[in-house]
Sequence to fold (505 residues):
Amino acid sequence: EEAAVARPFRQRLLVVANRLPVSAIRRGEDSWSLEISAGGLVSALLGVKEFEARWIGWAGVNVPDEIGQKALTKALAEKRCIPVFLDEEIVHQYYNGYCNNILWPLFHYLGLPQEDRLATTRSFQSQFAAYKKANQMFADVVNAHYEEGDVVWCHDYHLMYLPECLKKCNTKMKVGWFLHTPFPSSEIHRTLPSRSELLRSVLAADLVGFHTYDYARHFVSACTRILGLEGTPEGVEDQGRLTRVAAFPIGIDSARFIRALELPQVQEHIKELKERFAGRKVMLGVDRLDMIKGIPQKLLAFEKFLEENPCWRGKVVLLQIAVPTRTDVPECMLLPFSYQKLTSQVHEIVGRINGRFGTLTAVPIHHLVSTVFLVWTDRSLDFHALCALYAVTDVALVTSLRDGMNLVSYEFVSCQDAKKGVLILSEFAGAAQSLGAGAILVNPWNIIEVAASIGQALNMPAEEREKRHCHNFHHVIMHTAQEWAETFVSELNDTVVEAQLRSIE
Ligand code: ADQ
Fold:
């Protein structure tokens, strides 16, 4: 009994995601060093303590030899990570091709690739075949490590074929699938050549989760319109079998941010930033360098604002942190929506704004192309710098063209209890549903509207700022990542029990 008190039973949770939360660097034939890597999911699961979690995923490197694979598997085991080894050709066709060239843009309403882009990655068919093959490889690793009673939680658009692969082998396995991106309107999903196969596979899961009710509704109506299945308030029914579909809005580990603000090194950063930008209002953007984040549109809106409000020139600064992503993929393999083109476009607009409105003493935009990553086990300096930036900001600008949720908006709010700054938030980010009442919501495509909202935010009376902030702060501290994961997994457990009861009846 004593032992039971000391070590309460914790259900094993197998988190299956395309990427492990670490990057592996080879140091020798059988030696590896591991670095924790950033990303929305990593940040979200940081706070989850309830389960004994294991991660299953690709380590981001090609390891063709057995000695290397064995050594990496061993090193990763210490971090409770289990690798799936994918060779270069699979990565090219599955990850760069099907995931990032087809599903990512489609789910963010950017449409399917034009033929010229498709041609460079060979045919759509071969990409889809590689996608299925890769998903089967993930399933093989899950099966090898699965123990009865485990919960298997599959993540994101990379692994839509996984629930079917898993259930084919073991119908009793508890399988959940969660999508971190938006699920688009069924009219968009309809254009996907493999639309039915993907929907059917996802429906093999016991529980299917999305960030918002809208995404869940889009998914159910895609199943109704494309597969002819019945949508019920609980989910989707197919020949008496129900797949539960629901919204589980993600949160962050807000306490971690709030605690960090008290640390001397963060206070030191804050002091430095305050001195550096004394006399100026600070606006902040923190985004991965991705088409969906609407960085050029944000810059154009800032330019418009300065154009129309000469009194603010030299009195406001925009810090745009752009984090290059998918840099673990060799340049020659990077095809989707030319990230290079986006980079040069961003540089061009920044240069132009600084040329037009910059002075020797006040450059309006500090464009930092950083490779800073949020460390998930450790408290790195980078995390501290990020917290300090959030804390000194007067106005945060989140102008995603589409975004599943957007955790940056949550992180900003959690660091603003002293300052009570303003959040300008795209209505096309999932976060608009939860932080909409406190934020200024904008259509990021409407540059004039965003420019006007910058003026509104900078001039907002303290009383209104406080009211808006309190609303959002309350939401962010009440709806944490931990709660998100616990709710999803307990709902998954319940769903499976209910299904068993139904089958007995
Ligand atoms: P992302 O598209 O990566 O996530 P987001 O939700 O904003 O977008 O998360 C980014 C994370 O990276 C944040 O935790 C942020 O702090 C961190 N980060 C960004 N730049 C950083 C920097 N320079 N230094 C340190 N950390 C940095 C995807 C979906 C989102 C969804 C999440 C979670 O696209 O819509 O909210 O998954 O489901």
